[in-house]
Amino acid sequence: QVQLVESGGGLVQAGGSLRLSCAVSGRSLSGYALGWFRQALGKEREFVAVIIWTGGTTNYADSVAGRFTLFRDFAKNTVDLQMNSLKPEDTAVYYCAAAFGHYYSIRESSLASLNTYDHWGQGTQVTVSS
């Protein structure tokens, strides 16, 4: 059974940093994709970033590019989202999700779609105060 567990959320002032972690168990991620999404109160869930596990290629939403970075740890089977220069508009519940549909290329636009992902974590709250 595939399980994804996020950790690392919290409260931070604008301009600060947080590092979220997603631990995956129950299945190898080799060749597959792991994405991060977020959902602010009253808004739809949106794409943040994605990494292709084997090659390590990444893609980021325009709103976070240059501020957020993905890191993978083969030994721990985790993907971390390092978030720097945080803004109040980054406040949201952050979710990690795994896509096992096929061996993905980072160029696939479907990786930004919620429907592509088969398994989701429970989410972790990130609050950025102004």
The poorly predicted ranges are: none
Pairing-aware structural class of the strands and helices? mainly beta
Helicity, in percent?
Answer: under 10%
End-to-end separation: 40 Å
Oligomer status: single chain
The value of Rg in angstroms is: 14 Å
Number of helices: 0
- Overall geometry: globular
Total beta strand runs: 11
Strand/helix succession: EEEEEEEEEEE
Average pLDDT level: 95
- Biggest beta sheet attributes: 7 strands, mixed
Percentage of β-strand residues = over 45%
Descriptive account of the structure:
The chain has 130 residues and is an all-beta fold. The chain has strands at residues 3-7, 10-13, 18-25, 33-39, 46-52, 58-60, 68-73, 78-83, 92-99, 119-120, 124-129. The radius of gyration is 14 Å and the shape is globular.
Write the layout of secondary structure elements.
Blueprint: E1 3-7, E2 10-13, E3 18-25, E4 33-39, E5 46-52, E6 58-60, E7 68-73, E8 78-83, E9 92-99, E10 119-120, E11 124-129
Parallel strand pairs: 2-11
Antiparallel strand pairs: 1-3, 3-8, 4-5, 4-9, 5-6, 7-8, 9-10, 9-11
Key phrases:
130 residues; mainly beta; 4-stranded antiparallel beta sheet; 11 strands
What does this entry show, briefly?
The chain has 130 residues and is mainly β.
